[in-house]
Design brief:
Length: 312
């Protein structure tokens, strides 16, 4: 799931304490088209691509997705108004639909704007979290929930919530996951519309030469005059290569029943496979309270299939 996290971060940008965590699906509604061979589907008028890192819930994969099925999609923005799915969940019904995007063509008199090319009427909308219609402006990212247009009418919004926004103050710490756009060099590109300078960043997860448009990155750094100056950059996925796709959880072991059934930082994990490697210890050291980092390349029905356990 995609999340927005606010809180405090230590001086080394290694850890932090969350004061607010918000997870809202970027899209929710009926599927209107599927092209499994090309790796995409459409929902709420938005084309959504998938990759090797996309997780499915209630579906075995993109091949199982059919038009008119209802889905809830967590995703990251790509170029040209498209999205890259991080999680696709089948749902039985969608009484309301949800969209994410940036406000365009705001018309305060008509109480309307455009979102992903769709007209949105916000005259009846509730603004969540103390927000108000007065704060709307072109370019502001928003989550919009409502009912689809009838005929040629506008999408009628019932709730509008502000999307992600990075701090404006200089030297504010930021951690940002996104898809590379407007690539100029491995040191200069945009991520979720934010200009990134990675000239002095420590790069892990692959060679710097593999960074380009469409590559998924984690960037850790500080905001300086509206630009994210990266201190660390991790390559999460390079389209077409099949990897790297790694899921991790770090923390004390909890609710330990066996190697096939325990949790780390809330994540259910299974480390019973024959290919699991143990670093700084053995499987005999697994018990409640032991601090570990578990990692793997698959999450099946919410369970992390572990390939490495590192004792910390």
């Amino acid at each position: 799931m995609t999340v927005i996290v606010r809180g405090s971060v230590d001086a080394t940008l290694q850890s932090g304490v969350a004061t607010h965590v918000l997870s809202v699906p970027e899209l929710r509604g009926p599927v209107t088209a599927v092209n499994a061979a090309a790796g995409w589907f459409e929902v709420v008028g938005v084309r959504v691509s998938v990759d090797d890192a996309t997780l499915y819930a209630g579906l075995s994969g993109l091949d199982a997705l059919k038009p008119e099925q209802n889905v809830q999609v967590h995703a990251l923005p790509e170029s040209s108004g498209r999205m890259r799915a991080t999680r696709v969940q089948w749902i039985a019904a969608a009484t309301t639909q949800r969209m994410w995007g940036s406000v365009q063509g705001l018309n305060r008199a008509a109480k309307s704007f455009q979102l992903n090319g769709m007209a949105v009427s916000y005259g009846q909308a509730h603004f969540a979290s103390g927000w108000s219609a007065a704060a709307l402006s072109d370019g502001v990212p928003v989550y919009v929930q409502g009912v689809p247009a009838t005929g040629n009418g506008a999408f009628v919004a019932s709730e509008i919530r502000r999307g992600h926004g990075l701090p404006d103050s200089t030297n504010s710490p930021v951690v940002l996951l996104g898809i590379v756009e407007n690539f100029t060099s491995p040191q200069l590109f945009t991520l979720q519309g934010v200009r990134v300078n990675a000239a002095t960043a420590q790069i892990t997860g692959g060679p710097a030469s593999s960074i380009g448009n469409g590559v998924k990155l984690d960037v850790v750094g500080r905001m300086v005059q509206g630009q994210l100056v990266a201190e660390r950059l991790r390559i999460r996925h390079v389209p077409g290569t099949g990897g790297p796709v790694v899921y991790e959880a770090t923390g004390p072991v909890a609710q330990y029943q066996s190697l096939s059934n325990f949790r780390v930082n809330g994540q259910l994990a299974d480390a019973s496979g024959s290919n699991v490697s143990f670093v700084n210890g053995t499987s005999l050291g697994m018990r409640n309270g032991v601090r570990v980092r578990v990692s793997g390349s698959k999450v099946l029905e919410g369970v992390l299939v572990v390939t490495q356990v590192e004792f910390l």
